[in-house]
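Open question from group meeting: does this chain pack into something compact, or does most of it stay loose? Before anyone orders reagents, we agreed to write out a predicted structure and look at it together. Recording both the input and the output here so the notebook holds the full record.
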Amino acid sequence: MTIQPGGRGVAGQPVRRLTVADVRACSALAVDRDWEPAPEKWRLLFELGEVYGVDDPAGGLAGAVGLTRYGTGLAAVGKMLVARRHGRQGLGGRLMAHVLDQAGDTVTCLIATDYGRPLYERLGFEAIDRSVRYIGPFAAGQPEPAGPGLREAGPADLAGIAELDRRSFGADRGALLAMLPQVADRFAVSDGPAVRGFAAAWRSPDTLTIGPVVADDLAVATALIAGLAAGADRPVRLDVPGRQAALAGWAAERGLTERRQSTYMVRGGPLPGAREHVFGPANMALC
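Structure tokens returned:
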């Protein structure tokens, strides 16, 4: 879909809840802002949460934003996009106000670009950390810290994965975790009688993105990442929370270079969980 120029009259267009039939228009909106189209990530967002948008009378979408709820204690805002030709006209604020009305009093998190951060600050979000993107060919053969092996996650692992995730992430991501074996290219768990960590890998045309990564400690996290990255036929991407400085150093030692930084932000209270065990997000839209 090609976004048409022009697009007057958007101020009179209502915010509506989008459906999976709008995935193509969402991907075109992403391309308009120099984001990857990632239709598979949009479909995942529609499966897990709610996507709202404003139609452009000239065709396509003028803007869109997603909301994912994790039980009653936490929600994530992501994929907040406004078409270039409608920028700086208040549409982003209108979409965010709408989605925050839907979230109500729930603690709400997002990962902000520098462009969007001022808007989120005006809406009451506070910066709590940063997210640093590392990309590069993964240098195999480097000595790794002692850690468990990994194997593909199976149905029998889901209870242990969910328990570790609830302790670490602090909210119910059961729907996402149940979908990972079907939607991710690989979904791995630490080898052993108890689940000490898990991670997923997603192939795109340009990168192999690894996330979420949840683990008892750095050794488990790096063993999972190294196992998923081994033999990759494209650059590996990690989005590393700022609090995980040791993981960032490990990534740099293995050939990944820093490409950009974003900001973790929260509104309505602190993030739940033991976040020292969260080494990477599922994707940027899901926190």
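Observations to bring back to the group:
Residues 1-7 have pLDDT under 50 and may be disordered.
The longest helix spans residues 91-103.
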